[in-house]
Write the structure tokens for this entry.
Amino acid sequence: MSGMWFRLFEAWAVAKLLSSPSFHRAVQTIHKRIYRLQHGTPMEEMGGTKIEKNGPSLLKHFKDEIKEQLKTLPPKRLR
């Protein structure tokens, strides 16, 4: 008789769990983490501009070029 109550409780608990949105969010989060560990970040989440790592910025190149030009300036002439 006790086994019958346990089965009834188990069926009720499973039905409640499967109808719960928070349970489905937890399963989705766990699945996403495992997928990322196995396959890396999906390309659709990286976006078009984040596929390759960005190199030095344009501002850094500009500053470096100005520094180089200031190093090689000819000396000022006295008039």
